[in-house]
Amino acid sequence: MMKQGVNVMPDRNCRGRPWLHGKFKGCGYRLTMGREAILGVLSKHAGHLSAEDIYMKVHPGHPNVGLTTIYRTLDVLSNLGLVYKLDFGEGRARYELAQGPKGAHHHHHLVCTGCNKIIDYTDFIDEEVELLKETERGLSRKYDFNITNHIIQFYGLCEKCKGKK
Amino acid sequence: MMKQGVNVMPDRNCRGRPWLHGKFKGCGYRLTMGREAILGVLSKHAGHLSAEDIYMKVHPGHPNVGLTTIYRTLDVLSNLGLVYKLDFGEGRARYELAQGPKGAHHHHHLVCTGCNKIIDYTDFIDEEVELLKETERGLSRKYDFNITNHIIQFYGLCEKCKGKK
DNA sequence: GTTTATGCAAACTGTTTGCATTGCT
DNA sequence: AGCAATGCAAACAGTTTGCATAAAC
After folding, report:
1. Which residues of chain B are in CATH 3.30.1490.190 domains?
2. I need a surface site. Which of A38, A70, A141, A149 has the fewest CB within 10 A?
3. CA–CA min distance B60, chain A (Å)
4. Can you give the pLDDT at residue A8?
5. Confidence (pTM)
């Protein structure tokens, strides 16, 4: 007989739960040292880390955590919606924490195609978000989509790079 | 003595020249059969072709054109601004002609993360473009960037995929 | 004790590069 | 003739996978 209120099967699709550790375990995933270390790095260094960046930062304290684990953990985290997987067209993915517990500010990206510098901007975000919401509503209806995410990125040359030939 | 009006050195940075073939040759690049074939495929099948897609379509008529040439040509084309290199997070790049000679319509993309279906939408484009221009102006000034391009993409599940768990 | 997570090495995939040859102009 | 473009094969880079072992629960 099944006990009340207990998920026997891990619930791999649960979003909208509490925060980090709680959310993690609540979804049926195990909280290991490697995963804690990765979460730690992500919340300490807020912004655009590649798998290898994370590996480098985790490795000193946890030499036994391999790159594979980094990839697998990031995959879990982004499925849980805890982490955004970003792509700036460099041929490698980058990751950032979706939201701090206090609800970090939403931002978009400005990418220099010369030196790959990336600027998070929050200017104009309000207007953008407003318009995006409307667009999202319209697109959802017209194309019968369940829209979960969006990307806005500007590309160009930063002040240093636009000088060079 | 240098002849008037003739570029002895190929001008690899020339944008804003006439159209396609003219532009191509005008920039010091040679117009070869392979390149013509690739341009042909791009203008016939408007939208989101991967390098391999293009290879497949070019190959029957030009069995001697290899994948390497496809990549190299696409690189040239996107440097010339004739082709946009798109990234939908599938781990492969996709390409589309920037503008037809008649000035094809600007559009953005709606991507299904379930089946990778991609919808070009032009709805709301006017409002978006308006806002983007302003944002672009603001960002250019504030961060001293020379902005050349932007991306807007919505991600979600299409009507078929949102049913399946 | 059962099931998930990990490390390692090897496999994969899309893309790039070196070099000798071909082909525009 | 001279230099750019090509094909081929090999190199590359980031990411994924198979499998035996270790660790959470």
Report:
1. 107-165
2. A141
3. 30
4. 37
5. 0.82
